[in-house]
């Protein structure tokens, strides 16, 4: 039996420690006893990117904001389909996450952070959204387990009425707010609609082979 190897720890501001493990050829990021992400399950994170890009296809010089680098699945999937004139801003709150991408997970990262279309901001995506006005064609959020603030209680403000209004203000005309969640949340879906978004809720398999649990992505479009 292959044991898990601890490669690093990181303190989430206002939250608990994250731990990066390697198990054979796989990596996983763990919070307490919760496996937040792993190289075995990437399908829904990739779908967050590809389905968002489909919804803004054909726009000149599209600008995406990705909240949370994670293991880079969403970023790499977006770069694979975006045109050369696109810009992708990645907001990552935990510097060690980026260090892991350039260190033990360098091969997995495949130099995506060095793509000329990518701009990395070491900041809370909440602050990036609040300081933006009509800057983004799409905002992709995968900063927690969903609208429940598991990793960091302060993440709840992203999903509040005030947070949704800020996201609307940061989007360009006909922009899309895409939010990943590990599970359904009917209360939050109603909140999105009450804020004035046209909402499409999609269930996506956790694994890229179409297997595993179903995760939820809300695509909230501006009219």
Which helices and strands, and how do they pair?
Layout: E1 5-11, E2 17-23, E3 26-31, E4 34-38, H1 43-55, E5 63-67, H2 73-81, E6 87-91, H3 95-102, H4 106-109, E7 118-121, H5 125-130, E8 136-141, H6 161-170, E9 171-181, H7 186-194, E10 198-205, E11 214-221
Overview of the structural elements:
This protein has 223 residues and is an alpha/beta fold. The chain has one domain (40-221): Vaccinia Virus protein VP39 (Rossmann fold). Helices cover 26% and strands 32% of the residues. The protein contains 7 helices and 11 strands. It has helices at 43-55, 73-81, 95-102, 106-109, 125-130, 161-170, 186-194, and strands at residues 5-11, 17-23, 26-31, 34-38, 63-67, 87-91, 118-121, 136-141, 171-181, 198-205, 214-221. It has a 7-stranded mixed sheet with strand order 7-6-5-8-9-11-10, with helices on both faces. The longest helix is centred in the N-terminal third of the chain and has 13 residues, at 43-55. The protein starts with a strand and ends with a strand.
Please outline what is shown here:
The chain has seven helices and eleven strands. It has 223 residues and is α/β, with parallel strands linked by helices.
- The helix/strand order is EEEEHEHEHHEHEHEHEE
Shape summary: globular
Uncertain regions spanning at least 5 consecutive residues: none
Helix content: 25-40%
Q: Strand order, biggest sheet?
A: 7-6-5-8-9-11-10
Structural class: alpha/beta
Largest sheet entry: 7 strands, mixed
Radius of gyration: 16 Å
CATH class: Alpha Beta
């Amino acid at each position: 039996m292959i044991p898990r190897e601890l490669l690093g720890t990181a303190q989430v501001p206002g939250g608990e420690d994250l731990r990066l493990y390697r198990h054979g050829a796989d990596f996983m990021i763990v919070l307490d006893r919760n496996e937040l992400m792993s190289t075995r399950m990437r399908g829904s994170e990739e779908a967050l990117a590809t389905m968002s890009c489909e919804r803004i296809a054909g726009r000149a010089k599209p600008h995406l904001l990705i909240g949370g680098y994670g293991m880079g699945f969403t970023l790499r999937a977006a770069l694979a389909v975006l045109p050369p004139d696109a810009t992708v801003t990645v907001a990552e709150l935990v510097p060690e996450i980026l260090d892991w991408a350039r260190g033990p997970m360098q091969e997995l990262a495949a130099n995506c952070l060095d793509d000329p279309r990518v701009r990395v901001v070491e900041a809370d995506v909440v602050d990036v959204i609040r300081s933006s006005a009509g800057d983004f064609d799409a905002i992709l959020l995968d900063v927690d387990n969903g609208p429940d603030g598991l990793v960091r209680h302060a993440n709840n403000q992203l999903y509040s009425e005030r947070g949704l209004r800020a996201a609307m203000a940061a989007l360009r005309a006909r922009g899309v707010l895409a939010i990943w969640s590990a599970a359904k949340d009917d209360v939050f879906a109603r909140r999105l609609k009450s804020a004035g978004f046209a909402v499409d809720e999609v269930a996506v398999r956790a694994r890229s082979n179409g297997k595993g649990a179903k995760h939820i992505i809300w695509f909230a479009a501006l009219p």
